[in-house]
Please model this.
Amino acid sequence: MGKGGVRVPLFVALQVQLLKILLFCSASSVVHSNCVVFNFGDSNSDTGGLTAGLGLYLGPPAGRQFFNKTTGRFCDGRLYIDFICESLKINYMSPYLESSGPDFTHGVNFAVAGAATQVKGIPFSLSTQVGQFLHFKNRTRELRPKGEGSLISEKEFRNAVYSFDMGQNDISIGFTSNLTYPQVLDTIPSVISNIKDSIELVYENGGRKFWIYNTGPLGCLPQTLALRKKNDSMLDSLGCLADYNNAAKAFNVQLSELCDALRSEFKNATVVCTDMYKIKYDLFANPTKYGFENPLMACCGHGGPPYNYKDRMTCGQPTATACPDGSKYISWDGVHYTEAANKIIASEILSSDHSVPQIKLKNLCKS
Model:
């Protein structure tokens, strides 16, 4: 019998009970996840930090693929870090700089588009992001006894995964500042030193699980090709700018050496280094394997082949148009990856096949 003595049909009662069970299980899958992630980076993993921090508006067609609205992500949908969150069964990461309705239950995203290891145009360098983390941790300690704030516990801070995806903009800025290739290479040790200092500071403040990404093939980005290519002799076998890719690889060698050094230096800590270059380069090298067409051409831009990128006529401007189907493109706007590419990138990251040591991120969260 229902309320007021009204008889409820049996099949309706069963449907209601089934719905309650499904809702409970759905909620439990997130609530009971014990993974906490703190992310530091640039636009590759920025979930809205730049737009919140500088009050910028990133308009359509950004966000059209999944969110059906703009979210501050430089993408048609989800970033690789969003797919990682889905796999870890935690909510999408809120940017630290978002003042309205952030959810810091399972961590914080400090990444900001345009960020480098030093302040170079964007005032949210890696050291600034780590400083913001320390402020967040101290405020959490102050607010926790009052039942306020994120309520992340000391144990959760200690067991959290600290991910770093930084270095791409440092290399790009070197080239756009008209440094020669050897001069760009000369800047890499200081970039590595800045990353080292930031990771060590997190370690000194209790971090014990580190996930470090190297940088991708900058020379394959449509923007880079459209603006920096002077002649075909600058290109590699895939049609990418060889100097840009070689600089990225030189950076990655030194970052790998840093990971080795940190493993020796840190006690009772795990340092995982993931080869983002290999993951992303394979998309350009074998596009048909993943269902992509025109690998060096932006989905959203202006100018058509070969790169569909023209300065001051970029994605979001009235003069730019977006392709009908972003799932056939690697590049969204000439600089950033499409949701389709990000999904593959996340899958490869989660496989641990490209990481040293080969530890799955899910297992690192649980350990």
